[in-house]
Write a structure and sequence with these properties.
The radius of gyration is 17 Å and the shape is globular. Helix 6 links the parallel strand 5 and strand 6 (181-185). The chain has helices at 5-15, 18-32, 87-99, 112-115, 141-155, 166-169, 202-212, and strands at 37-38, 58-62, 119-123, 128-129, 160-164, 181-185. The protein is α/β, with parallel strands linked by helices and 231 residues long. The strands form two sheets. A four-stranded parallel β-sheet has the order 3-2-5-6. Strands 1-4 form a two-stranded antiparallel ribbon. The protein is 32% helix and 10% strand.
Length: 231
């Protein structure tokens, strides 16, 4: 996996801290003991491999990775093109059909085309045990992603943060709202999407704000060209 310079510097800085060493040790112990951890080790930081930290235009913040076999691929809400589209992503696509003119629901859930344009698909927790949602909560990832978001806020000139759900919204305190735009909503999960996510218009609002900053907007439409190679 190859990282851009600012991402590499950030990871190097975090790796020197005690919490990070303890986090990595805990995950290694679980893998060695035979516990299935998602995503695979090589894909944990995949979301960071598309553009450098200061080139991120939109941060979409989820909770933790999908915990079913072959689902998690290191990017929040995204799955490989041969996997069934998960319920939360179905609701994201449903909102896009209402919010973005001409958006057609794709036949796959690979969001790499967003990532290539500077959409950081980040979870607040980057690993999970198979079939155990939130099993790596409080393991140390929250400190890592809080630092990551604070670093984006500091070094990135202007970025939109889409914070969906309580876990994501808590990270908003690390964002400088004088430079960046924060949009809040409930999580797109079927349990909560109808309480405010559907109809939030976050995608069009993000593009409008980016345009006002002189940035190229995000092309939210997804073609059916399939997945890119994994890093």
């Amino acid at each position: 996996m190859s990282l851009f310079p600012l991402w590499e510097a950030f990871l190097k800085q975090q790796s020197k801290q005690r919490y990070f060493s303890e986090l990595m040790a805990a995950i290694t112990r679980q893998r060695v003991s035979g516990i299935e951890i998602f995503p695979p080790q090589a894909e944990i930081y995949r979301a960071l491999t598309f553009v450098d930290l200061d080139q991120v235009k939109v941060v979409i913040l989820g909770q933790d990775p999908y915990h079913g076999p072959n689902q998690a691929q290191g990017m929040a809400f995204s799955v490989s093109s041969d996997m069934k589209i998960p319920p939360s992503l179905k609701n994201i696509f449903k909102e896009l059909t209402q919010d973005i003119e001409g958006f057609i629901t794709p036949q796959h859930g690979d969001l790499s085309q967003w990532a290539e344009q500077g959409v950081l698909l980040l979870n607040t927790v980057l690993t999970v045990q198979q079939a155990k949602a939130h099993s790596h909560a409080k393991l140390g990832w929250e400190q890592f992603t809080a630092a990551l978001i604070a670093t984006i806020s500091e070094l990135n000139p202007h970025c939109v943060f889409l914070l969906w759900g309580a876990h994501a919204q808590e990270k908003g305190k690390n964002v400088d709202t004088k430079k960046h735009l924060i949009l809040h909503s409930v999580h797109p999960s079927p349990l909560s999407a109808y309480r405010g996510f559907l109809g939030c218009q976050h995608f069009s609002k993000a593009n409008q704000w980016l345009g006002e900053q002189g940035c190229k907007s995000i092309e939210w439409k997804i073609t059916d060209r399939g997945s890119l190679p994994l890093f």
